[in-house]
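W.,

You were right to be curious about this one. When I first looked at the sequence I had no strong expectations either way, so I just let the prediction run and decided to look at it fresh. Below is the sequence, 229 residues in total, followed by the output.
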Amino acid sequence: MTRRLAVVVVAVAVLASAALGASGCTSFSSYQTARMLAPRQLSVGGALAVATHYRGVATPEVPPGVQGRAVLIEGLARFGVTERLEAGLKLGYARSFGDLELSLEQAFVDAKLSLLPEQLAVALPIGGTLIDGEAFDLQTQPGVIWTATLGRRLELDSAFKLVLVKTRGEASLGSLGAAAVVGVRIRSDHHRVELHPEVGVHVADLDDDHVAFGDSLILGIGLGVFFTP
């Protein structure tokens, strides 16, 4: 039964990822590790992050430089399905400041599959962002997670992902990006409480012929706190 459930969860995530395509605003945080929760084990937590959008090329509407900053609050939960499969949920609210002020409400679900125990996993998140209560972006962020154990209570976690965004109802509006996130996870003696600071960069607009590689960057820094009962 658990094997069938694992196949169904992964298949749904893969099909949804393919359906969205590479066609925005998005959260590219990870706060994940290649370590897997035990079957039926639950982990819950929250995170606070700050992101800065930098654009190195001018457009008729926007000059180059810092386009704005955003503060993001996220709630996260993960559940162990099998020894090699986890399901996750991430809910977020962000407020951007600067030349472009927006409110963002985000929701993602994901499946994480272990490839090498406690070292390598793949994650398939899908979800969306509601912008100012009006526009809605569909998103998927398939990627890999690599973990290196640094000590009994410390590990290095990194995630590398594609960021694919499609504005619902707009055939011509979409974007392709890539993100890299690096963090450390600090565990308590009994591994019930974990701190996870991380930094990341999202290279946006890779499919825009008018934007050179690295000319549209989002830099983020955040801190997550997690509890496993």
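Here's what jumped out at me. The longest strand covers residues 65-80. And, maybe more interesting for your project: Residues 1-24 have pLDDT under 50 and may be disordered.

Coffee later to discuss?

I.
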